[in-house]
Amino acid sequence: MAAKFPTTKHISYDAVSAYGMIKANQLSFCKAAIPTYHFENADVIVSIGADFIGNWLSPVEYAKQYVQNRKLNGKKTMSRHIHFEANLSLTGSNADNRYKLKVSQYGAALVALYNKIAGGSLSAPATTQDAALTAAANELMNARGKAVVVCGSNDVNDQLICNAINNALGSYGSTIDLNKHSNIRQGNDEEMAALVAEMNAGEVGAVIFYNSNPSYTYPDAGAFDAALAKVDLKISFADREDETAAKCDYILPDSHYLESWNDAEPVKGVFSLQQPAIKNLFDTKQAQEVMLSWIDAPVTDYHEYIKANWKANVASGATEQDWFKILQDGVYNYAGEDAVAMAFAGNVNDAAAKIAARNQGGDEVVVYEKTGLGNGNQANNPWLQELPDPISKVCWDNYFAVSPKFAKDKGWKHGDVIEVKAGSATVKAPVCLQPGQADNTLAIAMGYGRTAAGTAANGVGANAYPFLSMMDGAVVSYAVGATVNKTVEEYALASTQTHHTMMGRAIVKETTLDEYKHDPTAGNHIHMLATHKGKMKPSDVNLWATEELPGHEKPNHFWGMSIDLNSCIGCGSCVVACNAENNVPVVGKDEIMRAREMHWIRIDRYYTSDMDKETAHEKGIGKLDMYGLMEEPAENPKVVFQPVMCQHCSHAPCETVCPVVATTHSSEGLNMMAYNRCVGTRYCANNCPYKVRRFNWFKYSDNEQFPFNMNDSLGKMVLNPDVTVRSRGVMEKCSMCVQRIQYGKLEAKKQSRRPMDGEIKTACQQTCPTNAITFGDYNDANSALSKQSKDERMYHLLDEVGARPSVNYLTKVVNAPAEGKPKATHH
Amino acid sequence: MSHVESALRPTLIEGDRTYHDITEDVCRPIESKPNKWWWIAFIVSAAAFLWWIIVVGYTVGTGLGVWGLNKTVGWAWDITNFVWWVGIGHAGTLISAILLLFRQKWRLSINRSAEAMTIFAVICAASFIVSHMGRPWVAYWPLPLANQFGSLWVNFNSPLVWDVFAISTYFSVSLVFWYTGLIPDFAVVRDRAKTKARKFWYTILSFGWVGTAKNWQRFEEVSLVLAGISTPLVLSVHSVVSMDFATSVIPGWHTTIFPPYFVAGAIFSGFAMVETLLIITRKVLNLENSITMCHIDMMNRIILLTGSIVGVAYLTEFFIAWYSGVEYEQYAFINRATGPYWWAYWSMMTCNVISPQLFWSAKLRTNLFATFFLSIIVNIGMWFERFVIIVTSLHRDYVPSSWTMYSPTWVEMGIFIGSLGLFFTCFLLFARFFPVIAMSELKTIIKSSSSQAKKGGHHGSH
Amino acid sequence: MNIWDWPMDIGGKPSFALFKNMPAFIPVTFEFTVLCAAHGMVITFYLRSKLLPGVEPHVIHHRQADDHFVLTIEGKEENAAAMKSALKETGAVEIKE
């Protein structure tokens, strides 16, 4: 392009910028890139506002790495994760110790850590967590070479200090790799700002937008639009008339990535290819081919172009045969240069001075990405809108999350609409009470408030991008000095979970690492039942000796699932995967408000409460008051996640009560649901102690009331043809992906063998980034499931009800010192 | 020969009525045009019934989503109303059957209306069963009918199937018991019929009854056997309905006190509804001589007895919840009394425990206004009892993440009001066209000989 | 037979031997017994009494169902007068031949 149009500039723009990091790395190590991280090599992780397993940079990759040091398969060591943040994030909820810290103090916190670790004496304002920071610094120093400090701020000074800390800790080369840098963020905020200025000055003749939507995501979108209007030729390759494309002269829709050829280098030296999986559904053309035709390239077929480029530059000297091999593998590793030792050359004094000069105090706004919806370019995906936020469990909206104390001081209640002004932004959104949030902080998610994304996204929520602003050349996602006014409006937020504590019940069993090392069954107290034969475990008490009687044997397979609560980070990928695999209908906000979401698997999120049975006993508080107080989450609660789906109970309460035998138990251990027999009395759902059954209250397909993916032929292409679409009036629930089980068994049978462990994966298991879900065959003594089920941490949910679930859980072990009294969660 | 009349016992039929008087009293409403009160009541009820058709049609056509139910609370007003109506229906059979076995002659003034009330109440209850189903067009699947699926029968483990058997048995047996008793009375109307139409219809309805001694003998035998069979039936039907809850695992439902508790509660609310209906009917149809204060008194005593049993059942539930040490059960009761539905719980307690105890006072037992008012209070209380049992147990059970709230929509409320319309429409039609008192049986308890002995005459003795 | 044609595991209950699964059948057996007994009795009653809709009633006297008993006596012609006087003495209200 540069040859044909010499004045062309390629400006990389990221809606969620990491330019501060890039600039900091340039200043620190003369390398303008973001590094790759290796959390699996870290024994101590300290995060200052980096939601690294939620949405920071490469969360799926980090989650996989992080969890390797959290699983306790046979070993008794775990990493230590200390987290400081303003709003309660997914990563913060998984931390061993989490501290509330206002976002304007992140920089000061980093300086404090630096002083301790590198022995510096930079001046910085005090933070509210100085004691915790000191303790964290000590732990980091004890783990030199196996530690990492990450910061979610995009301010170049914060990141520079962070680099200095990591350098002092010897992280580079162990937990951080700047040689093999990451290419997933290359956006340059300074160039973008310069572009806006040039456009405004009329110096830009033509602008082409590819995979970017600045009219929506640019912090000062108004200024951007005004500048854009002065450009003569505006072209967009967007796949729809989005906010930016609507202002362009031409829209040349790019093909979908599943219809396209492409290549990528996400990490230096790791190359990947992308090939079409489906022919173009619409009349689209790949943007690359369009651009090749503009420069009159000899080859405009992008497939050929890529192949030629690879053979010449990437995999030099590759033959056609080699090319096919690479295409089949999908990934090509290129050795490249040797690793270079990085010498830190950043000016920490300068950075610390800028941090110290920063505005603090007053109310602050933090803008974050929701784990599901991200930066908003997938806002029109109804599955993502309906996916409950992992922390707040609110869907179909964004909101200002505030701490209950802050809301009480201001006289706000959940759902009050407030208007927040910060900088040049004014945004109205409802209040959502969020335990664990720092006081005087309002957190709002970006990605909402779109106006041209599609029917599912338009008009949903409020656009939070205006709160972003440039600071020292990079776009930061917070604002200080906000003024807030309460409006008279009230707004109902749809939430899939409205009760947040465990009420003293042993739903999620938890213990600390110290207790676990002492006794592997710590925290896993089995509720013994008093019988005439003495105390017995619920699994040993049986009215009928059915396991020995004919008719209930499981001669072939006995499917089950084990969920490791140490691995589950609560992200919700399993929920979306299940929706996709099993044609679970999207029901929309109104129905969610009526508690009728259809998700077959849900992630329950519990906060701890200050009141528990021991405290009530000590303080002599009666049961009535105790339960009332137990409903309130603590001010800085611990958070646990628990995925719950149909437990496929051997003594299922639901099967007994169906009048028409619509639900029975298979000889392979699954609780089956015959949709075409169900008359819809809902007794089974009432009798389920786990409340996992879902009823079809309306016809969700071919129904204008639910304008999602089951109403037109394009939407119906999303449906899985192996799974029935259920009709109105019928009950449904997790089937353990029986269609996949059947497929796996048949494939194996075709090869005259039994399915191997790990061959059949349920959708949730397949998608889970941390492998928290293990599906397998209890009849196979060597299966991962059988082994995991023999773990001392293994327990069944609501064991004492006697339903004999086939799903079990592994107790969550937290690597935090026991606070005062030993933390037992069951009596 | 003079007959001895007990000085302590008041006569069951007042006002020195003769056989003919009774015939006249009971046939008059059938043979004359209904007065304006009947028309007003009928128009209101028919309008409510029409509304029922509309909202049930809307539900069946659009989906149960138009109700307020959700993933946690799968039953609420629908099953509350079902149990409420079935409970009300128990009084009729109890009056006809159990009071017969206990030789309580005072039942004869009220048994016909009470049995009619049972039939109509069970029809209303059955309507809720069908309309609460997700797919009511296959509502016949819970019936054990042979079919072509290799014959796929129903799930006999399920209390809902026991319900199918119990309620259809109860309905059909009550219907034939009621109808068989009606036959001699239809014959009376037929024999008096002056118009051709009336003669025609009542000839068909009376099945050719003539009233020979042999007919009567067989009639008495059938009544006795049906009474004997209906007695365990009425006790079992509401026990089976209670097992919809008792055999589940939900805290607050899973308790063995339910069968006797529900049966007592059913009789309690049934008698209250009988009183509500008859206090009005006797006034409007001028039947005060046949349905006397003595009857009201007796019914109030039964209300006192069964209300006390219900109160004791409540205490038993608390005791067992505490004694068992099961935290889920304990929380269920703490939540009922102090949680978000505390207002329903305390309404239930006030209406069901306190109000029947007022009937210890003889003065209140024989006061028509008090009785009428309290009978409605009792039925309100019993409605709240079923609501509390169903909704408070479901909305907060084992796993706190699923705890949610429930509130009804206008459709559910409309169906309930519509069912009242259905019930009263049927009852008003019954009062218009059918003899509301079992006159032929009532005549057997006129102490005509003793009243004539008082008068001093000899004629008419037999 | 259901469990033979459709062998099903319902809630882990021992459904393959009747005497083990028998508790589930108690309410149904009881109700069905009552149903058959009651309807059997009533149908027998109707049949034996020859009562069915549309049967023409053989009404002897229009007040037989109201407030009078009717006695029909079949006898010889010569006894008629003696019978009449005997009946009158014992309080007959109306005598018809």
Folded structure, characterized:
The complex is a heterotrimer of chains A (827), B (462) and C (97). With 827 residues, chain A is an alpha/beta fold. Chain A folds into four domains: 19-182, Dimethylsulfoxide Reductase, domain 2, CATH 3.40.228.10; 189-267 and 270-333, Rossmann fold; 361-495, Barwin-like endoglucanases; 525-601 and 645-810, no CATH class. Chain A contains 26 helices and 36 strands. The termini of chain A are far apart. Chain B has one domain (19-144, 153-449): Up-down Bundle (Formate dehydrogenase/DMSO reductase fold). Chain B starts with 18 loop residues before the first helix and ends in a 7-residue tail after the last helix. Helices cover 69% and strands 0% of the residues of chain B. The longest helix of chain B has 34 residues, at 159-192. Chain C has 97 residues and is mainly α. Chain C has two domains: 1-56, no CATH class; 59-97, no CATH class. Chain C is built from three helices and no strands. Classes of the chains: A alpha/beta (827), B mainly alpha (462), C mainly alpha (97). Chains in contact: A-B, A-C, B-C. At the A-B interface, strand 27, helix 20, helix 21, helix 22 and strand 31 of A face helix 5 and helix 10 of B.
Number of helices of chain C: 3
Uncertain regions spanning at least 5 consecutive residues of chain C: none
Could you state the oligomeric state of the chains shown?
Answer: heterotrimer
Structural Rg of chain A: 28 Å
SSE sequence of chain C, one letter per element: HHH
Span between N and C termini of chain C? 64 Å
Share of helix of chain A, binned: 25-40%
Q: How many domains, in number, for the residues of chain C?
A: 2
Portion in strands of chain C: under 5%
Number of E-type strands of chain C = 0
The chain-level structural class of chain C is: mainly alpha
Shape of chain A: globular
Low-confidence stretches of chain A: 820-827
Q: Which strand order does the major sheet of chain A show?
A: 15-17-16-21-13-18
| Largest interface in this structure | A-B, 61 and 54 residues
Q: What is the gyration radius of chain C calculated from CA atoms?
A: 29 Å
* Domain count of chain A: 4
Report the major sheet of chain C.
none
Mean pLDDT, all residues of chain A = 92
SS-derived structural category of chain A: alpha/beta
User: How confident overall, as mean pLDDT of chain C?
Assistant: 85
